[in-house]
């Protein structure tokens, strides 16, 4: 399968801390890949490196054959930051239309994105007056508005109603079926089962990179939470041995 | 056009904030009215001070608004996200410059109109030149605000930049002590502060019916300072951060 994102020997330092130390992975095109790991494990830093806003110490990040953050990628990549990065003093529709205009798209594209995240009824409301979950979906609308080939989503389903969460995952699956490469970070393990592939990351190191079924098989359990724990323990034993 | 939609976006944000609009439009007019009563019976003094203030207020207001607005872009993550899109640094810098410049034009027109027609302010030159210089000063405030926001991490810090950037320019611009009467080293400082030139340009309009060479030179210096501040501001906008 064709590779959409390739990370090789990536080292990122933030302050005195080395967040990613020689991290490598490859993400195939047209898949939903789950990036799982505890808070502080380097998920956001990896995503920032892929979208090209993170200063890196060494290594390479290649997206669709171009260096991460290079000009040709800017119209082909969508990024949802963990904290909703939309203008609180604009309405949902105004936010989506502004981000659409950056890709030279019209209001119809913006409205379609607002519909896709289930905010049709709230489109005229100021983002400041929305609930946390709605705000996060407004931000998601701005990330998908350009129908990017690569979509990087940092915890898109946090705080969402279970029904909506299910709908959002259906949406991600549809995007992948249409050829979009989706990278989703999460720490909810039941969402991990809906991914084509999983990247398990802890302390800036890759613990597993496989399909959910293979990860569970490797750990000898049917529960992903348990599988994650087993893999970490196994790695620690190797490290101390 | 990304620049046009950025200008529209910033103006829409302003439109959703009627209190800020009211402050932008009304506050300078109120303060000039206050001065009118302070200097009642001394129309010459009022003319001079009100004319200077017509240049100073837009500078202060736009400096504050811009530094907070830009700081918000940085702290809420919208700036980081914008840098993953095809937006250019200049789209942002000029977007803010043009949007807030338009707001400043409304502000200066209302304040100057009120000073001339309601408070009997008189100048030898025309109101159009006064507004032109006031708007140039406002855009200077926008450019310096964009630059200073890079050095503030919080809104608390951003507000502290106002006395640092505004007060010395106000004290040394010739309003309180004529520049020629200042000690040499103070004059030297005054000479490198852009507001000294906008105040001198306004004074020229106050004294001469036709635009003078000094006025055009001063205005050119102010425009030059705007360009320098914008270029430095662009240098502080980094697509990649630590």
Describe this structure in words.
The complex is a heterodimer of chains A (241) and B (242). Chain A has 241 residues and is of the alpha/beta class. Chain A folds into two domains: 3-76 and 153-240, P-loop containing nucleotide triphosphate hydrolases (Rossmann fold), CATH 3.40.50; 85-147, no CATH class. Chain A is 37% helix and 27% strand. Chain A is built from eight helices and ten strands. In chain A, the strands form two sheets. A six-stranded mixed β-sheet of chain A has the order 6-7-8-3-9-10, sandwiched between helices. In chain A, strands 2-1-4-5 form a four-stranded antiparallel β-sheet, with helices on one face. Chain B is an all-alpha fold and 242 residues long. Chain B has one domain (2-236). Chain B is 78% helix and 0% strand. Chain B has ten helices and no strands. The mean pLDDT of chain B is 93. Chain A binds chain B through residues 14-15, 48, 51-55, 69, 71, 74-75, 77-79, 81, 83-91, 94, 98-99, 101-103, 126, 142-143, 146, and chain B through 2, 5-6, 8-9, 12-13, 16-17, 76-78, 80-87, 239-242.
